[in-house]
Design a protein that fits this description.
single chain; about 210 residues; alpha+beta; five-stranded mixed sheet; two-stranded antiparallel sheet
């Protein structure tokens, strides 16, 4: 999969969970007013002991401010070191955001991700949310069929992004259009219940994790 398509898909994950976060705000997080929530999109297909690789992240403002995309490339921890295995493969000495979830201690990894983003952006971070592609697929399935560009469609996020790219839409427009389709799905009470159920199920399966 090309780098641009991979980034588009992972950005979709983050925008999607930004929506699901507000659905679950009262259940999981309580009142987080004034906090930035760091949402990390995790690629579980990368071979490592922990949850996976952070290929994209997003800072979500709960005060109505701008949401900030976080591109992990080059973002490092001020003091923590890269795993020895990664250094043996050519990584530098400082822990990359991409590798913050390398080990099995996912809670510590989430803390590393928080510290890396704070260090590199000068923005404070409250809760950290991790979501992998399995959780994304489950939530999309719960929302199907989706109304998209005036048509009712059954498709994955990858299918919709590729279709828009074929038609000349920019990567960002394609992702945001699909996010709009998911938001529209929440206006249907039955779909909202299904999406909430899918997110809850993925939470308890460990494909979606929340750390304070």
């Amino acid at each position: 999969m090309g780098t641009q398509k991979k980034i588009a898909i992972l950005l979709l994950i983050i925008i999607l969970f930004g929506l699901i976060f507000f659905v679950f705000n009262g259940i999981f997080l309580g009142d987080s007013s004034g906090s930035n929530i760091l949402v990390c999109a995790v690629d579980e297909s990368e071979n490592r002991p922990g949850m996976g690789a952070v290929d994209m992240a997003y800072l979500i403002s709960t005060t109505g401010g701008n949401n900030t995309p976080i591109y992990p490339s080059g973002m490092v921890h001020p003091t923590a070191s890269e795993p020895a295995e990664a250094q043996a493969e050519g990584a530098g000495s400082q822990l990359l955001l991409h590798d913050s979830l390398w080990n099995n201690d996912t809670k510590q990894g989430a803390q590393y991700a928080k510290e890396i983003v704070e260090y590199n952006t000068n923005q404070s971070v409250g809760p950290v949310i991790l979501i992998n592609t399995k959780a994304l697929d489950a939530i999309i399935q719960a929302a199907s069929p989706l109304e998209y560009n005036g048509q009712v469609v059954n498709a994955s996020g990858i299918d919709l992004i590729r279709e828009d790219q074929v038609q000349g839409a920019s990567r960002g427009d394609a992702v945001l259009s699909f996010a709009d389709a998911l938001i529209n799905a929440t206006h249907n009470p039955m779909k909202l219940i299904k999406m909430a159920g899918a997110a809850s199920s993925q939470y308890f399966q460990g494909n979606l994790r929340i750390y304070f």
